[in-house]
Amino acid sequence: MEERAYYRFTPATLAVPLYFVLALWLVYWYEVKFGHNFNDYCIYPRTFKGLRGIFFSPFLHSGIKHLFHNSIPLLVLLGSLLYFYRGLAFNVFVYGALITGLLTWLIARPSYHIGASGLVYLLFSFILFSGIIRKNYRLIAVSLMVIFLYGSMVWYILPVEERISWEGHLAGFVTGLFFALYYRRSGPQRVVYEWEKEDYEPDEFDQRFDEDGNFLPGSTQKD
Length: 223
Known about the structure:
Elements: H1 11-34, H2 53-56, H3 64-84, H4 89-107, H5 117-134, H6 137-150, H7 166-182
């Protein structure tokens, strides 16, 4: 498949991130409007009851600042995933979210863990490492963009602040790396040029270059 066939803008590229983030805001609005507190649906590590947080905790946030800080990266990173890795997006996002939640449940401190930060780190890690692993110039450019925008997030996979669920961040980061490795041969790949192929036969012009790429005017290189 040609490389350009992988990159196709569809309405879902914008709609899915927008609807997902809108769902987060609606849940928060409902909690504030009707005085509900859904903390019981968060991840509480290594308890049977806390397992349900694997499914529900990404939709719950401690405050509007927490929600806002997750919303913008989710819009950018999820949109990037859907555009550049369209065929892999569902598996990476859905199964990655479940694995991130499960890892958080396994390794985190005994406390309530809420928010979509784990998903942000999942997407950040997958997009970052996929471009590097595939050695595709377009995807490397996306990786560099992600580093430029969100590179400072890496510090928060370490226990730098007690009130932050760094375990959830770490779980998302590790899961994203795992999926980048697992799907490295699926989706867009590095462009292989004609002269890199084993069956390539140089034409008369190409024969005017030596093996180091130096041009030899007036001569023709022959085997």
